[in-house]
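#lab-general

N.A. 3:47 PM
ok so I finally got the sequence cleaned up, no stray characters, all 277 residues accounted for. can someone with queue access submit it? mine expired

B.Y. 3:52 PM
send it over

N.A. 3:53 PM
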Amino acid sequence: MKPNVSVVIPTYNRESLIGRAVQSVLAQSFRDFELLIVDDGSTDNTLEKLKDFCDDRIKIIETPHRGVSWARNVGLSRAKGEWMAFLDSDDEWLPHKLESQWDYMRAHPSIKIVHGEEIWIRRGVRVNPMKKHAKCGGWIFPKCLPLCPISPSTVMIHREVLEQVGVFDPQMIVCEDYDLWLRITPFFEVGFVEDPIIKKYGGHPDQLSTRYKAMDYFRVKAISKVLQLGIGRENKRTAAKMLGFKAGILLKGYQKYGRTAHRDEVMEMSRQSERWL
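B.Y. 4:20 PM
back already:
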């Protein structure tokens, strides 16, 4: 019998954290799920830690090390559920996460993607997100452009959404979630659970957002990609303005520090976006 929800956890060298993530899924009050854990070529004891869990809903998939997007996509390709949920291996679901979203979906049958509020933990201390990180639901494409307003660990999404817009782009080293939300939100209204449903941990050195500083380069690439889609003229104007703004900041930085990597590419993407202004 197929589960209603397929949960995908990608992990790479997270032996000290993977147990907490897996346990938070197994502790869910909503029980009709399968859990696919995709080990992205770990070289530590992550796989050994996973052997501690004995639950027939768990499937462990081993792959060569190709990045978080590839790992999530492998999990999606094996998923049997109608609904997909993701959990980063350094985050933790609260026990009612799936149940809250399942109830929301039943109450709003037209909604095909829902996320929720988070509790932020930085270096072991709870912190309050800044105003620019505020989350909401609705037709939120314009709000997705400045910064990523949806965390992968909070999402539940129907498989037909991914069949329509595609899955994670393995070419995006970071901001792969930002890229996906930009492809989804022009076409699908987003639901939002106002109460916290996860604990999101940050500040550790192996976090991708810590390791890669030039995040706006990848955001500019994502906006350039979405401008090629049929997202409507007003959305294209809004996206083109944001691309120009972010590209301008990047180009000033390149000039200030004498960097040439990606400079010509960013200039070309900026020029191409001008026809939508």
